[in-house]
Amino acid sequence: LQGYASEMDNPSLVHLIPSALQNKKEILFGNLPEIYEFHNRHVGTGEIENCIENPELLARCFLKRKEDLQIYEKYCQNKPRSEALWRQCGDSIFFQECQRKLDHKLSLDAYLLKPVQRITKYQLLLKEMLKCSKNSEGTAELEEALATMLDIIKSVNDSMHQIAITGYEGDVSELGKLLMQGSFNVWTDHKKGHNKVKDLARFKPMQRHLFLYTKILLFCKKREENTDGHEKTASYSFKNSLKMSTVGITENVKGDNKKFEIWYNGREEVYIIQASSVELKNTWISEIRKVLT
């Protein structure tokens, strides 16, 4: 923040800033100032240091800051935009000059990845601590803190997929909480329409990426595009949706314990969904059941 973001306001370097970067500091750095502030405020006050003598207190730090840690989600959601901007102007003289002044071996993009890496390291730390604290004081709190961090990572991961949905007419933010997302084989069986279509649909599954919200289930088709020779970025083009208030579920499908059915309008439309494992199927069924009840 000091070596790069502040330097964008340095009059002596302004002429080196590439035009693609003009007024785009927020896109490049996301809410990094907010993350910095958060750590400065809580870590800097000795709150974590106090736990050196009493490690069992550490879990409470995480539980107390549960809401605050959501700032990482915002950072990760902005990351694809930040990376695209960096690809455009990362090799400019401005960044080279800043890096030279700081005497850093790594360029700025390596540091912009740190918050993404950081959010996944907390749960590893808590897992290690749990190994050392079998049934001692504070174990239950550590387990709760670990569950909280895994929940935040899941939420970050889900939201990263959600921002890649294209072609949905409505406002995704009005669909309620995103509970689950993942890829499945889907067969459809429509009562209406030509019988031949029905038979064909039986055999060849469609690959669909499902997003389960409290109000709606979205079916999307995953597309992977190469971005200027870089890694593939996935996008999910919207195909159809089912209102959760009008669906029913059949937990078992004859002949395959990884399949379940979601049906609509008293079985007028039936979607046979095949998960990659029985465990995954059961997780989805229990989430769908919660919504339906």
From TrEMBL:
<keyword id="KW-0597">Phosphoprotein</keyword>
<dbReference type="InterPro" id="IPR011993">
    <property type="entry name" value="PH-like_dom_sf"/>
</dbReference>
<dbReference type="InterPro" id="IPR000219">
    <property type="entry name" value="DH_dom"/>
</dbReference>
<dbReference type="InterPro" id="IPR055251">
    <property type="entry name" value="SOS1_NGEF_PH"/>
</dbReference>
<protein>
    <submittedName>
        <fullName>Guanine nucleotide exchange factor DBS</fullName>
    </submittedName>
</protein>
<dbReference type="Pfam" id="PF00621">
    <property type="entry name" value="RhoGEF"/>
</dbReference>
<feature type="domain" description="DH">
    <location>
        <begin position="1"/>
        <end position="159"/>
    </location>
</feature>
<dbReference type="GO" id="GO:0005737">
    <property type="term" value="C:cytoplasm"/>
</dbReference>
<dbReference type="Pfam" id="PF22697">
    <property type="entry name" value="SOS1_NGEF_PH"/>
</dbReference>
<keyword id="KW-0344">Guanine-nucleotide releasing factor</keyword>
<dbReference type="GO" id="GO:0035556">
    <property type="term" value="P:intracellular signal transduction"/>
</dbReference>
<dbReference type="InterPro" id="IPR001331">
    <property type="entry name" value="GDS_CDC24_CS"/>
</dbReference>
<dbReference type="InterPro" id="IPR035899">
    <property type="entry name" value="DBL_dom_sf"/>
</dbReference>
<feature type="domain" description="PH">
    <location>
        <begin position="171"/>
        <end position="293"/>
    </location>
</feature>
<dbReference type="GO" id="GO:0005085">
    <property type="term" value="F:guanyl-nucleotide exchange factor activity"/>
</dbReference>
<dbReference type="InterPro" id="IPR001849">
    <property type="entry name" value="PH_domain"/>
</dbReference>
<dbReference type="InterPro" id="IPR051336">
    <property type="entry name" value="RhoGEF_Guanine_NuclExch_SF"/>
</dbReference>
